[in-house]
Amino acid sequence: xxxxxxxxxxxxxxxxxxxxxxxxxxxxxxxxxxxxxxxxxxxxxxxxxxxxxxxxxxxxxxxxxxxxxxxxxxxxxxxxxxxxxxxxxxxxxxxxxxxxxxxxxxxxxxxxxxxxxxxxxxxxxxxxxxxxxxxxxxxxxxxxxxxxxxxxxxxxxxxxxxxxxxxxxxxxxxxxxxxxxxxxxxxxxxxxxxxxxxxxxxxxxxxxxxxxxxxxxxxxxxxxxxxxxxxxxxxxxxxxxxxxxxxxxxxxxxxxxxxxxxxxxxxxxxxxxxxxxxxxxxxxxxxxxxxxxxxxxxxxxxxxxxxxxxxxxxxxxxxxxxxxxxxxxxxxxxxxxxxxxxxxxxxxxxxxxxxxxxxxxxxxxxxxxxxxxxxxxxxxxxxxxxxxxxxxxxxxxxxxxxxxxxxxxxxxxxxxxxxx
Length: 420
Fold this sequence. Notes:
By secondary structure, the chain is mostly helical. 72% of the residues lie in helices and 0% in strands. The protein contains 12 helices and no strands.
């Protein structure tokens, strides 16, 4: 052992007591500090536990509220589903009823269609004859309109020929009288003199273009001869005649005297020939407009007035004037209004046949078809036994068209006479 160890091992009682007091003091402080730390730890645990409990309660309350809302929404959806299911069942039932009514109505329509088809098949030959008679009647009436309104016997004859061809297709001996009347009407139209109205209008237009080529008449031709007689000769022996001629020429410069017996043309002022030519053109235009209107009196008066003016103011010895006047004279003698027959013999007979054979038959067929369609529609509108009535918009079906087949009557054209 060392010396230091020896000194430490030798301890007095006082030294031991002081050492014991120093060792007990730290242990009590440690216990007290441990107790305080435990209390603090417990308080922290209690606070944490209280906070967890509070947040847990809040979360539980929120979840309960959300759960209640979801249950309410689920119950609402179930109720809506039940109402939709009931509505769907009602629609399915109504659809089934509609299908039943539609099938019944379709069966009725099919039966009615078969009946109509059989009826049409039975009347097919009669319908063809009725159509041919109606076509012939229409052609004859159109021929009357072309004859009396348009004064066109050529087109009227063509229409009558078409009507005769329609009747010939029927091969019916009872139509022999009507066909004979049509042929008589065609013979009357063939005997009418044909007038070239377009040619007359073209000739009048040509005359209007030739007015500028006409030469005015020399109204002072007699004075010109006198002036020729008043020329002075170069022969000295004719001094007396030359003196008389010079004096006469000198006197004529002051006073001019002309003899007017009424046979010569009236005087025409300078630059007035333009108005004269335009007046002649206007008369020719009036005559051209009167041609398609068949106004024969106006036509002749206009040409005669134009001829009078040409003979009065233009040189009638000129070749252009002679040709112009010759054409006007030919046109004056050309009639533009032709007497047309007052009536067509075949028109009245065809009208009677239409009333007796065609219209009565077609009206009877139309009545039968109309009654059948109305009955079928009335039966289709009746609801089935024990079934609830369905809306009119769903059960109501359009009625079948009523095939009348009747040709609309054409009013016969009556002769209007001379429309001018």
